[in-house]
Amino acid sequence: MLIEVDDVSKAYPQVNGCESAAVVENLSFAVAEGEFVCIIGPSGCGKSTLLNMIAGFIQPDRGKIYFDSRPINSPEPERAVVFQEATLFPWMNLRRNIELGLKAGGAEKAELQRIVNESLALVDLNCSQQAYPHQLSGGMKQRAALARVLALQPRLLLMDEPFSALDADTREHLQDQLLKICAKRRQTVVFVTHSVEEAAYLADRILIMGRPPNRCYASLRIQRGQGRSRTDKQQMSNILRLRAALKDFSRQLSDGNC
Ligand code: ADP
């Protein structure tokens, strides 16, 4: 397994100072190399907290998270994150934005140029490489943020609602581009989303997270026919299964029966 989350719990101090509020509790799950796992659940259930722990930005209070059998203690380029907002430097053109992480990593010049060209091609942005962020659409900015992360050639791509601010067409286009990249690179992805349709379309497997106080976790494997479709019977059945699981799950939550 590439990632192993082993009985992890995390709490934050509450705003009033004294008590701690548990956000993730006794969660265990694993992600295989090449797998696309979506995390879905209501707002505030701890999806970003879990992603931030896998990224190494924050540490669990209890339990451990392993990456390739090594405990995660800090962020590393092999576990790269794409956020909801594309965080590009406004004073640098797109190409320089992408080069930046590679330069910090000490890549040699010819190799750097090759990797930047390849990353730009993967997201279809070759023609816009001289443009500055304010000259790009929301979808282009998000593709640029993805290119910057892909240039680092991470073994794990962590994505926190990366397409949620985009219009429906752009979102679907980027979902398809991401899937092409994953197929080409056999990329492992952990992807946080609110959208049942997005999760059912992208994921091999979905982790459903519940909210306190009766927190539950469930894992749902997505069935595929030949290739992906947004409208075929198999996809409709996946969406219905996921909705049913979420509904069942929230009923369990309200019954206090996990
Ligand atoms: P989700 O991504 O599912 O919306 P989050 O992981 O962002 O959930 O947040 C889960 C809960 O933890 C929320 O109640 C949020 O307010 C709280 N929280 C998140 N980050 C912090 C923090 N740094 N300090 C205190 N509370 C936090």
Folded structure, characterized:
With 258 residues, the chain is an alpha/beta fold. It is 37% helix and 23% strand. The protein contains seven helices and ten strands. It has helices at 47-55, 94-104, 109-122, 138-151, 168-185, 196-202, 233-255; strands at 3-13, 20-31, 36-40, 62-67, 70-71, 79-82, 156-160, 188-192, 205-209, 217-221. The strands form two sheets. Strands 6-7-8-3-9-10 form a six-stranded mixed sheet, with helices on both faces. Strands 2-1-4-5 form a four-stranded antiparallel sheet, covered by helices on one side. Strand 4 (62-67) and strand 5 (70-71) form a beta hairpin. Helix 3 (109-122) crosses helix 4 (138-151). The longest helix has 23 residues, at 233-255. The protein is globular. The two termini are 26 Å apart. The mean pLDDT is 89. The protein binds adenosine-5'-diphosphate (ADP). Adenosine-5'-diphosphate is lined by residues 12, 23, 41, 43-49.
Ends: how far apart?
26 Å
Bound molecules: adenosine-5'-diphosphate
**Cα-atom Rg, whole angstroms?**
19 Å
- Spell out the helices and strands N to C: EEEHEEEHHHEHEHEEH
**Relative strand content:** 15-25%
Offer a few descriptive terms.
258 residues; alpha/beta; 6-stranded mixed beta sheet; 4-stranded antiparallel beta sheet; 10 strands; 37% helix; 23% strand; globular; binds adenosine-5'-diphosphate
